[in-house]
Amino acid sequence: MLISKSFIPILKNNPSEAKIKSHQLMLRVGMIKQASAGIYSWLPLGFKVMKKIENIVRQEQDKIGAQEILMPTIQSSEIWKESGRYDDYGEEMLRIKDRQNREMLYGPTNEEQVTEIFRSSIKSYKSLPQLLYHIQWKFRDEIRPRFGIMRGREFYMKDAYSFDITDDDAFYSYNKFFLSYLRTFKRLSLTAIPMAADTGPIGGNLSHEFVILADTGESKIFTDKRIFELNCDNTKLDKSSLEQMRKMYEQYYAVTDEKFNKDDFEKIVNKENRLITKGIEVGHIFYFGDKYSKAMNTAVDLPGGKKDFVKMGSYGIGVSRLVGAIIEAKYDDKNEIMKWPLSVAPYDIGIIPMINKNDTSALEKANNIYLHLKKNNIDAIIDDTEENFSSKIKKMNLIGVPYQVIIGKKTEGDLLEFKEIGGETQNLFLDKIIKIITKQKASN
Ligand code: 5CA
Predict the structure, then answer these.
(1) Number of structural domains the chain divides into
(2) Residues 116, 113: Cα–Cα separation, whole Å
(3) pLDDT per 10-residue tile (average), the chain, 444 residues
(4) Same domain, 163 and 237
C-alpha cells in the first residue's frame, strides 16, 4: 500500500475534544470518525486493527469448542418481556417500532435471543454442553458516552453463552472461557487480570471482570500485586486442570470498587503487596444458573426421564474497546510513538524511501522490497510522499507500524537500514528482515 493512495486522513494536531490518548490517536491518524455521539465509522486503519483483534478472539473461542453463530442486531421485545428484562433495562435500551407497530429493540446483549434459539432445538442432556458465541454490534444508550470507542453507544462485542445441566458442568464451561480469555488477552500482548465483580443487569452470583491496568481506566481496582506473576501457559482443558487454574488466580485478592471492602483488603493483603490503581474492563464473564432458562421455560430431559432447567453463563469481550485499550497500554507518550503488537498491527512494516523529484531510485527500490515482502506474507506500507525525512518518521511512529525500513542516501546495494519502532537501527539484508518478522509472527 502506498500512503499517497491510502485513506489515512492524518491530522496535524491532537483534536481538542479528545481527553485520553487512545481517543486522540484514533482521531489523529484517522482510524475512526465520529458519526454522532458515541457512534463511529471505522476507517481503513482502525478497521484493520479491529478485524485482527476479532480474529484472535474467534480463534481462542474455537479452541475451547465454542461454536460461532450470528444473531441479529434487532430483536423482538417479546423475549425480553418473557425474561422480565424489558422494563428492567430502562433507558439504556434503544426501543424501536416497526411499521406494524410491533415493539422491537436494538440488542444491548443476547441472553434472551440465544435462549430462544437453544430451547427451540435442544431437548436432551445428551446434546450438552452447548457453547455458542457471536461477534456482533450492540447498542446501549449510555448516559455519558465518552473516550471515543472506549465507552460508545454502538460497540462491537463478542458474546458467548453456555448451557449445561449441573452446576458442576456449568463451572467447567465457565472455566473454559476463563482460560480462553487469559489466552486471548495474552495474544494481544495485554496483561489482563481476572477480578471478582458485580453482576449488574446481567444477574447471577459468580462473575469476573478482566481488567488491564491504565491510568485512564474507568474501573478502580484493588489487588494483590502477586497476581501479575501468574500465568496459564500449561493449563490443559480438562475439568480439574481448569479448576486449579481458576483457584490459582482466585487465591489473590483482586476486586473492583463495587466489591471492595477496606477491612478485608487490609486483613488479607500484606502492605507491600497492595496495589490500588485504575484499569479498563476488556472482558466480563457471568454465571447465573437458571435465571433466564426458568423465566423462559427452557428445560431438557435428564437421564432418568425428569426434566430440568438448563444452567447458563454468558461471556463478553469488548472487541471495539480493545482497540483503544491496546493504545492506552502501548502508547509511549513522551516520544509520541505508538507500538502496535505485531499480532494486530495495521501493517507489519513501514518502508520509508527518501524521495526527491530528480531521483526516483529509492521509490523503485521500495517497490521491489514491497513485492518481496508480500510474497512472504508480510504486509508493508510505503511512504511515497515527498515530505522530509523527519516528518515521515514521525508519521510512521504515530501510525505505530512495528518495524521500519529506511531507504536513504546511505542505502547502498542490498544492505538496508532496519529498525523496530523506537529501537536502534541495524543494517540488514532483506532476507534477514523477513526472517525476524516471520519468526515474531509465528510466536503469536
Ligand atoms: N451479556 C454479558 C456478557 S456477554 C455482557 O453484556 N457483559 S458486559 O456488559 O460486561 O459487556 C461485555 C464487554 O463489552 C465489557 O467487558 C466491555 O469490554 C464491553 N463494553 C460494554 N459496554 C461497552 C461500551 N459502552 N462501549 C464499548 N465497550 C463496551
Answers:
(1) 2
(2) 5
(3) 95 92 97 97 98 98 98 98 96 97 98 98 97 98 95 98 97 98 97 89 86 92 96 95 96 93 95 96 97 98 95 98 97 92 97 86 93 98 94 94 88 85 93 97 89
(4) yes
